[in-house]
Specification:
It is a single chain. The protein is α/β, with parallel strands linked by helices. The strands form three sheets. Strands 2-1-3-4-5-6 form a six-stranded parallel β-sheet. The longest helix has 21 residues. The mean pLDDT is 92. Helix 5 packs across helix 9. It is built from twelve helices and 14 strands.
Length: 347
């Protein structure tokens, strides 16, 4: 079995960092693994700390970079080099070194839209689609009793791309007619905590939480609002589904990997120009603008048709099978090792 290096942030506060921790833990059971962290936070699992503490890390024969495309360093020397990355628009911004991206022997992305984006610069045969996974043993499925009134939530770095203003505006519209509450847990600066002093039954928590606190938060709420205009995968939403809660989500990009009306509410979208402050934004870049009316209709359905909501929540049990991290990590590793063997056979 070849020796593998994983270059990634190791953090429970970011999508890449969280997934990096999980992959390190799972892959260390299967291959000789060394870690090259671009970021390290407190509270890493013992298994990951033991890898970082190796006195003589194994010299790698292949490398996997788990980073955003702007941080990708390209192929490392003669090593078989893999990039696992994602993007949240239909076009890359102009200052990405696409030549650098093209040096990788294999690129893995989590959704079909991302493959189209990267295939503009990189041969499509170099790109594989594999979704992310979640720790379904930690975020275990439970049959829920609905809260009275219904409790909505939103989790993540809640910026404009994440639809934070849509979340708050839709909640205010629904709250004017129905008893309900909204709790927001944001790791970014997209929402000011003082909003909670103005809007009834709105609670806001900012900054990082422990995994245990986040898990309790999931179990205490009924429906997550995931109204992103662009998403690579959206791990918090899938974690929430895996615990037995339902989700209202834009049916676009990464969400399309798990969006299913059997266990959640799909919000239709229209493709619109990206409205972000990038100086070098591709003018043709698009994201999915969710229908505001469809958002409020879905929220009202949760409140008025609680039998339907309860059935969707029961149906989420399939998520644990679809995105279990043990299976997903093995799948990624199999693709990486298969690519490595093909690479060696041509040397």
């Amino acid at each position: 079995m070849p020796k593998l290096m994983l270059r990634t942030p190791l953090s429970d506060f970011t999508g890449y960092g969280t997934f990096g921790i999980i992959l390190a833990r799972e892959w260390s059971k299967l291959v000789e693994l060394s870690l090259y962290p671009s970021q390290v936070t407190m509270g890493l699992p013992t298994e990951v700390l033991s890898i970082l503490g190796q006195l003589e890390p194994p010299k790698p024969e292949l490398i996997v970079d788990l980073v955003d495309p702007g941080s990708a360093e390209g192929k490392l020397g003669h090593l078989f080099s893999v990039l696992f990355t994602m993007w949240e628009q239909t076009k890359l911004i102009k200052d990405f070194d696409t030549t650098n991206l093209g040096t990788y022997d294999l690129i893995i992305v989590p959704n079909e839209e991302n493959k189209k984006t990267f295939a503009e610069f990189i041969p499509a045969e170099k790109i594989q689609i594999i979704p992310l996974g979640v720790d379904t043993q930690f975020y275990e499925w439970r049959a829920r009793n609905l809260n009275e009134p219904i409790k909505f939530c939103a989790v993540g770095n809640l910026s404009r791309r994440k639809g934070i203003e849509l979340i708050v505006d839709a909640y205010q519209k629904v709250r004017a007619k129905h008893e309900c509450s909204l709790t927001i847990r944001s790791t970014g600066a997209g929402i000011h905590p003082k909003w909670a002093d103005i809007i009834k039954n709105l609670s806001i928590f900012c900054g990082p939480w422990s995994k245990q606190t986040l898990r309790s938060f999931y179990y205490n709420h009924d429906v997550m609002l995931a109204l992103s205009r662009g998403e690579g995968f959206n791990m918090p939403a899938v974690e929430f589904l895996s615990t037995g809660g339902s989700v209202i989500a834009t049916s676009f990009m990464g969400h399309a990997q798990w969006a299913n009306s059997e266990y959640m509410y799909l919000v239709p979208h229209s493709l619109t120009p990206v409205k972000l402050g990038y100086k070098n934004l591709d003018k043709e870049s698009l994201w999915g603008e969710p229908s505001f009316d469809a958002i409020t209709e879905a929220m009202e359905s949760c409140i008025k048709n609680q039998i339907g909501l309860k059935q969707k929540m029961l149906n989420t049990k399939v998520i644990s099978k679809m995105f279990d991290i043990t299976d997903i990590s093995k799948r990624i590793l199999e693709v990486v090792l298969s690519g490595y063997e093909n690479y060696r056979s041509k040397m």
